[in-house]
Amino acid sequence: xxxxxxxxxxxxxxxxxxxxxxxxxxxxxxxxxxxxxxxxxxxxxxxxxxxxxxxxxxxxxxxxxxxxxxxxxxxxxxxxxxxxxxxxxxxxxxxxxxxxxxxxxxxxxxxxxxxxxxxxxxxxxxxxxxxxxxxxxxxxxxxxxxxxxxxxxxxxxxxxxxxxxxxxxxxxxxxxxxxxxxxxxxxxxxxxxxxxxxxxxxxxxxxxxxxxxxxxxxxxxxxxxxxxxxxxxxxxxxxxxxxxxxxxxxxxxxxxxxxxxxxxxxxxxxxxxxxxxxxxxxxxxxxxxxxxxxxxxxxxxxxxxxxxxxxxxxxxxxxxxxxxxxxxxxxxxxxxxxxxxxxxxxxxxxxxxxxxxxxxxxxxxxxxxxxxxxxxxxxxxxxxxxxxxxxxxxxxxxxxxxxxxxxxxxxxxxxxxx
Length: 418
Known about the structure:
Blueprint: H1 2-14, E1 23-32, E2 36-46, E3 49-58, E4 67-72, E5 86-92, E6 99-100, E7 109-112, E8 125-128, E9 135-136, E10 151-153, E11 162-169, E12 177-184, E13 196-201, E14 210-215, E15 218-225, E16 230-236, E17 248-254, E18 260-266, E19 276-281, E20 287-293, E21 306-314, E22 329-332, E23 344-348, E24 354-360, E25 371-378, E26 388-390, E27 399-404, E28 409-417
Antiparallel strand pairs: 1-28, 2-3, 3-4, 4-5, 6-7, 7-8, 8-9, 10-11, 11-12, 12-13, 14-15, 15-16, 16-17, 18-19, 19-20, 20-21, 22-23, 23-24, 24-25, 26-27, 27-28
């Protein structure tokens, strides 16, 4: 027996055990910004080199008022200095998450807008370039639609990228209507609106996020609905053309009716070198973070999506109509240590006031989906908006921007891999 103990001790000394380092958030700055909601980091062009801009949409609940979108140019140069955001626009009602629109015009954005707040339901998709004022792209049909996201695809093969989006109308009496639409790019050298509206689904479509992806030889659209509680995937028999709605197919990724708030196709969550879906369910009493393995059969249209619940039990720090947790999740890859083979998940808690980091407990086992969960930012009074994460100063450590809505503060952390 002593002989085997000696072998074990020699093995440990020759082959040291790899231990993951700790992800530690370091607060490096903060700045005031009233009603900070969604933050987005965008690539821009400054002084003959690419740079980062931090764009933040802000909204207040006062009916009928317009809201603000702010910009912090060259954020990598201002990480530890006094930050004063500049106004991009104050003409949009309830701006949501910012969508980079470089596909249409370099260094431009689309601002989806509108929400289920009295006097704020008349939304649109607004195009903003570096020099122009907001241009509404969706024709006004006298219905209060609101929008949260958009993606780009040449739907009809004319060589111009069109816009695809989900939208919702929630009447005072009756159930919600959710649609999947696309806007035809007129092919002008400058973007003017509105664009021609086309329907893929006039009812039963997504109302929050849409994301195109190439899975094998097939183009698919992943989408989710918060109000009609659906998690869906679309494809077209005429792919790569999607203009004929009769050729469109829809598949339910999950038949459990949940309030799916955000969806993201990641490169790989569990270390098997295959993409996975990362989904949050925003709920008043039991929100959750879920991963789905894409079908391994080679045909995403018929294979099984394998579901893994990564964390659950999220809820707002105070109950109320429209409140829920958690918010959006991001998979962040840290490369500084050989022991960390799976990405760290950074999760906004939304109305629970927290930001979380989740780390895989078993990096060498793709079949193991257990995670630890740690609070890395906490507020006892503020909703946390959409965070954004990038290594903007190229020092090897990502920066994290945290909008605290009720506090009117944006916190800046550096995520250190110690």
